[in-house]
Amino acid sequence: CGRGPGGCRGGRTDMALRCAASLAAGRQPWGPRREGTVRWSSAAKASAVKINEKASREKILTLESMNPQVKAVEYAVRGPIVLKAGEIEKELRKGIKKPFTEVIKANIGDAHAMGQRPITFLRQVVALCTYPNLLDSPSFPEDAKKRARRILQGCGGNSLGSYTASQGINCIREDVASYIERRDGGVPADPDNIYLTTGASDGISAILKILISGGGKSRTGVMIPIPQYPLYSAAISELDAIQVNYYLDEENCWALNVNELRRALNEAKAYCNPKVLCIINPGNPTGQVQNRKCIEDVIHFAWEEKLFLLADEVYQDNVYSEGCQFHSFKKILYEMGPEYYNNVELASFHSTSKGYMGECGYRGGYMEVINLHPEIKGQLVKLLSVRLCPPVSGQAAMDIVVNPPVPGEESYAQFIKEKESVLNNLAKKAKLTEDMFNKIPGVHCNPLQGAMYAFPRIFIPSKAIEEAKAHKMAPDMFYCMKLLEETGICVVPGSGFGQREGTYHFRMTILPPVEKLKILLEKVKDFHIKFLEKYA
């Protein structure tokens, strides 16, 4: 670009770029010279601008060039409505006036963020594992110290900061197996079939990844409930598999009907190879608890149609309705006899994030996988080894979920008091939410038998549907966005979970404290009545 001090000849591109940047800013590249001012010809200036243009080349990674499977991923629980809630929170902090003083994020099952207190014993053990010097402190009970020492002995260098085996710490996998045996009334569990995971989501994604294969009409189809937890549709999109929807029966408390499974399977065979069946029990977002007969029917269907079963059981402690009981798929499978128990391939999942613990941030979880082909077992361990190991603090937290204090230990009384308080509170809030929703005109809510969400059906007038279309929004997204903007309440539209054509819902967690939940529900009631009046 001509010859300033030091020159910009040949390969000295960096100097040329600095020169071009200076020219673009309207200043001398090297400042004033003692012997006079450098004069730049028009040709030199044009050459510098050309170099500057070349410097801002096109990006390699764009929406057009990125992985199309990632672009297809949608996760409604943290989707556009949540981004909008974040923007409103920033505006409130800046002092911008709204018809409310806070955003209530009822979009996600994050118990501690909603004010639930941690379980003392779990935090004590994790604290002891994290800072072993506390093992000498008289402030911690001996039963917590005993568990912490055992976990640390399973860690390299007796430190939570070391990598573990990819499958997880061996003594914790032994504790998980013992827990499953107790839960299922003596049904045997092998620690070698236990894989500790980064929350349940990590295990679900890993199993789907190893299951999906083929192309065209032989591409793997994955059967998921509608409504579903968006992790499933997101993972299916990312892996370029085929989503096969089966609909839960809203008129029958979101029951699972085998005839509907058969319909979905037979239709899907025309365009893919369905080989995976996912069940969420208790249900998310629908809150139903499957009865024993239903589970038997599903297992028989999977056996008959040669389907790999995925049982998402992270809400197994969250059962509230009288007459409802959690039955694990593993237990029912075993009780159906050897023809089923020795043949049906089953992966079941649990987590520290839900239940009475609510320890979402630790990202602790496990999966038990039975009847896996021995060679595939090695492939699964190989796949898991790529991420080295799950968070070790999360493994420790999972251990306390499956190995809590027992009668006779000094921490038992406090532990059981805290556990029952959380679960009893959730049961009250489930009933409160159901009752209050069903008093609102144009809203219907099925019984919240379990989990920690309500999924009410809402009536949206045709005028509102037309306005939603004009804004290029799904009608329930339009409704939820209006709810957020007018009340500060953040919920997730039913379209993010899937729903039957022509029906509209939203998912709302029941986790806020009772008094705040009452206020929230009253606000929803007032909003809905005004919404109907406006668009009727």
Automatic annotation (TrEMBL):
Pathway: Amino-acid degradation; L-alanine degradation via transaminase pathway; pyruvate from L-alanine: step 1/1. Keywords: Aminotransferase, Pyridoxal phosphate, Transferase. Pfam families: Aminotran_1_2. GO terms for biological process: L-alanine catabolic process. It is an enzyme of class 2 (transferase). Its EC number is 2.6.1.2. Residues 124-523 form the Aminotransferase class I/classII large domain. It catalyses: L-alanine + 2-oxoglutarate = pyruvate + L-glutamate. Its cofactor is pyridoxal 5'-phosphate. It comes from the Eukaryota. GO terms for cellular component: cytoplasm. One of its GO terms (molecular function) is pyridoxal phosphate binding. Belongs to the class-I pyridoxal-phosphate-dependent aminotransferase family. Alanine aminotransferase subfamily. Catalyzes the reversible transamination between alanine and 2-oxoglutarate to form pyruvate and glutamate. Homodimer. This is alanine transaminase. It comes from Machaerirhynchus nigripectus.
